[in-house]
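Quick log. Single chain, no ligands specified.
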Amino acid sequence: MTASPHSPVPDLRARAASYEARLRDAAPAIEAERRVPRALADALAADGYYRMLTPRSLGGLEVHPRVFVESLIALGRGDGATAWTVMTGSTTGLLAAYLPRAGARALFADDASIPAGVFAPLGRATPVPGGYRLSGRWPFTSGVENADVRLGGGLVFEEGGEGPRLLPGGQPELRSFFMRAGDTRVEDTWKTSGLRGTGSHDMVAEDVFVPAEHTACVFADAPVEGGVLYRFPLFGLLSLGVAAVGLGIARAALDALGELARTKKRGRKSLAETELAQVRMADAEGELRAAEALVLTTLEDAYAVARDGVGEGLGAPTRASLRLAATHAARAAARVTDAAYHLGGGASIYEHNPLQRHFRDVHTMTQHVMVNEATLKPIGRILFGLPTDLRQL
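-> predicted structure:
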């Protein structure tokens, strides 16, 4: 089935909320199986979630970044692992905007397809007539078992293999390589403390031919598509997607605490009737709402800058604001989830209690390179007025 570029954009945020109960019920099985069931992934694909950031010219939805973030929060409230695979799949689809149009149409025109991939340049590519020969191993390939289109980043080496090929500016040539599922294999490596249901196994390619039109050099080349969405920095959108999943997990943790607190007794009172629980619940709720508000207002401001600055990329202050909002939200989500977990007391540690899963999931999220503490360094440099490499933002 091929999507029409003129199809109306569905109300993704409302649909995401309608998935919540289904995902919450399925979450224990998703974790146990260490993957999102194919039927569920197909349903999400049919509803457009993997195409949120794909260009409209390819039948994608090319949504406002706020829709992307709010949809992930709603899905994460049901199940963090499922939301995570939607986030990584849709950000993989974002790179379709950088591909030559013929290659992009061949890979992304089918609205039933599911993308997955890793941007990191862990592959080695050699130019050959018509394209490249690519080999590599990419860990953390979330949702790879369900993915029809798979991305791996790689360095391009000179034909003699002596060293990386350099771009005109002197940097090594880093390209994104899109492959069909049959060109790669999956090695079962995802045995982790949290986000187990993402199935983020290793993807391996061995001397795969990748046509040139299925590759893009996103740091050197401008996007082929001219929409406002593609004036946003790639890492800014990815980091906000990571944080959005964290915000959804934190909301789920407060939901679980609310249910527990009404039945758990401390003496003659329920946990909900104790002053300590009331104060900490209110504090956590305030922190979560504030973090989400910062993300959404920052996105709105950045979108206005991108919309009005035709042909220009977002400058250092806006890029720093996007990344600051993302890292702050990720850390706030962890603090809120921690508060809910600790308030739950001994009940939080049991397998049947979702608080233990939310605790593990949110702390796996905070380890992501897009939102860990090191991301604050370039932001701090910009705030101090120091020269900063914006490629990190």
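Strands lie at 115-128, 131-141, 149-156, 174-180, 185-187, 201-211, 215-216, 265-266, 269-270.
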